[in-house]
Amino acid sequence: MTILTLSRPGLKTERLDDLLTLPREGGEPIFAEPWQAQAFALAVKLSEQGYFTWKEWAATLAGEIKQAANATEPDDESKYYHHWLTALERLVSTKGLSDPQSLLTRKVAWADAYRHTPHGKPVTLPETIHS
């Protein structure tokens, strides 16, 4: 498994400190797959742009993790970024940045593109999905 790290000058460490369960190596966030780093960066960027506060983000993520724990999902940390993505989708919908149906349509399109892209080729969406 390849582990990616995100070392970004200016990323406020108190923001990261709010996320106690964030997988880390050497104090930096780590990611097992590129989509995890992208979801992480998107949440940070949307917060920096004022779409939600970091405190609001941390509370939403904590709520997703708690909901999963209450549903007796095993806590082996393998689902952490799935919770991250669910929290991000929830905030994006709540804040009116996108609606749940558009998010689902995009998710289905990416899954379909992934399944039909030859190995070694970049996965892209058809132009009709981009608009």
3D architecture notes:
With 131 residues, the protein is mainly alpha-helical. The chain has a domain at 33-98. The chain is 56% helix and 6% strand. The chain contains six helices and three strands, in the order βαββααααα. It has a three-stranded antiparallel β-sheet with strand order 1-3-2. Strand 2 (24-25) and strand 3 form a beta hairpin. Helix 2 (34-48) runs parallel beside helix 4 (80-94) and helix 3 packs across helix 4. The termini are far apart.
Order of helices and strands: EHEEHHHHH
Category from helices, strands and their pairing:
mainly alpha
Compute the number of strand runs: 3
Strand content: 5-15%
Strand order of the largest sheet: 1-3-2
Please identify the oligomeric state. single chain
Largest sheet, in brief, is: 3 strands, antiparallel
Give the overall pLDDT as a whole number: 80
Unreliable residue stretches: 1-14
- Total of DSSP H or I helical runs spanning 4+ residues: 6
- Helix percent band: 55-70%
Q: Return Rg in Å.
A: 16 Å
Q: What overall form do the CA principal axes indicate? A: globular
Termini Cα gap: 34 Å
